[in-house]
What does this fold into?
Amino acid sequence: MKNSIRSHRNSIGCVQLAIVLLCATLRLTAQPGNVGAWNGTTDFPYWIEYPEAVVFEGRIYVFGGYASASTIPDSLDSSVHVATIGSSGLLSSWALVSSFNYGRWLHAVALNPDTRTVYVVGGAINTGLVGTNLVQFARLLPGGGLSGWTTTTPLPTAISGHKAVCSGSYLYVFRGNDQYGGAAQGYYYAPISSDGNVGMWRQGTLSFPSRRYFGAFAYNDHFYLVGGDTGLASGQNALNDVRTARVPQRSSLPYLQMNETEFWNSTTPFQVSRWFQGTVCKNGFVYITGGKTTPGFPPDRSDVQFAKIRVDGSLDTWQTAAASLPTSLSGHACVADDAGHIYVIGGDYPFGGGYKATAGVLYSTIQSANDTTPPKTQISPAAGPQPSSPINVTLTASDVGGAVMSIRWTTNGDDPRNPGAFYTIASSVSFSLPIPATLRVSARDAAGNDEVPQTAKFSVTTTHPVSDAFDWPVGSLSKPVPSSGPKCENPAAGDDWYIAQCF
It folds into this structure.
């Protein structure tokens, strides 16, 4: 019997612990930086795999990739398309504005916003991994056009599956596959002149472990490399690590040249190793979208993760976003605009046991730290007497600042924001409620704002019978009220009829 009681208590403890952990998880995923539901906008003109993209002055520019469609043959693309971002995040139609030399995929694109210059760097020039060392640049013109393309100083070696960023007045290229497909390590860097041309390339002194098909970005005075795989020679193992290096103009390390990175350190890894994921940094957060984990298999990741960048350049704990992509996706472009929208463009998705390219474009809204407006929940039916018990209650929450993360409620008058409340990780829920009951409800949004609990009291309607217990004659006030039984209201003097109401 004691064992039975102990077991029962342990079960209760486990349930309470699970509730506490769930509430902690809800708080975690509801922090600023989270993203809301993914919606579709204007499709790209054709199916596109492994494109590169940048955002500049309210427009998205997409460069190259592997193109296919029912109306065109599969081909390596050299075109540049642009779409204008509307105030709500929706895109205009796509327009072809330029073409660079040689169609390619697994290439890199970098933007220098100060000079309005965009660079297309390296890439594979056939369906294998044979790369090019070609570097070209063009100016982004007001109105969405591009100037002509100029060929500048080539890379020291042909590469593909790499990334490139502009930082200060330098162009940095983080190596991927070298000439014939072997994953490389380290980076090249070169100065950028005022006319956009690139000077002599150097290889950085300090390096990072070999990888390819990773994400990369610059934030403040740090570079970041995110995920990827280790290459064919080492078994093509997926990575979940994040490497970061400080890049001061002049390091205190005496053996480094101007504008070289310092040591590449590991910071907080994300969940589930992968490559060919989307990677983007915005408003002090880094995001990864989708990806794949196993060579030779279709894309298998649809999750979206994000982490805050700390003041020292390290990453905070990675969190899983409230909304995943509608399907597993890899080999897509991923960018973010200044209005707080993240875009996922093209890529591959699982299809018929394999995979298929898409022309789809998805976008989601980043929840801002400035969102201080809590959601509001509508309770149906309205509080008050109900004809019978139980009743069917529907709670529907809405939020003007973003996505609703959860609704929590109690039926005994307790605060629903405390552990032990009922909950749903959705914006609407219906359930059966025995009454009488005191329902208290609170919703939470993706920015972590909690609704002040609403209270709705429900009872069962009571019909009071009309009493004929006392047969008073009309107009008579002389019959006394009995000392026991129902208490009845005396009629007013002068009434020639009345009903005795008992209460």
About this structure: The longest strand covers residues 72-84. Residues 1-30, 467-503 have pLDDT under 50 and may be disordered.
